[in-house]
Amino acid sequence: xxxxxxxxxxxxxxxxxxxxPVVPPEALPGTWQPLLGRPALAELLAHPLAGxxxxxxxxxxxxxxxxxxxxxxxxxxxxxxxxTAYDRVGxxxxxxxxxxxxxxxxxxxxxxxxxxxxxxxDRFLVAHQVGAARxxxxxxxVREHMRPFPARDAxxxxxLLHFGAWLDVTGRGERLVPGDRRRLSELAPTPWFAVSFSAxxxxxxxxxxxxxxxxxxx
Length: 218
What we know:
Order of helices and strands: HHHHHHHHHH
Largest sheet: none
Distance between the termini: 5 Å
Number of strands: 0
């Protein structure tokens, strides 16, 4: 699946997106609109950092982008259920980047695709003048989201991103927000996503050991 932009005018190159024109919500992909209409996302659409993160998300393959949006919404549902305070706009940016390194041909370092995704997020946040402490919490969330369980000292953003990503792909944790995963999947379906996701993760293993030229562009 190609990783090019879904929206005309969104560049295919460059990581930080600081100079990109922000795509207005109504011009974002039609498949996103049912999710963008959910209150947790609709409330953020006017925020500059949220708009920039969604614009950057247009570069993801459609199914990965929908997973990222569902991840944020599931994380927010968990936070609301348990009264957890967290960086909402920042978590949306983290969700936009948490699987960004699953696509493309860039060689991955020892941190694998989560580590490279955290690097991409950090560049994006620096370009948007986000402070070091806030960046640290958000990049840690991306870097650690593939752990089996969050670290004991993980902050709310890391715990929530982990919860949303794992719930969307595997169903783990569904009892904490009953029915939310099903409702979001009905609004923005991606059949067999868990299978295609696993294939992408396996391909990323090759990108850690093979030269970039030997890995096919997906």
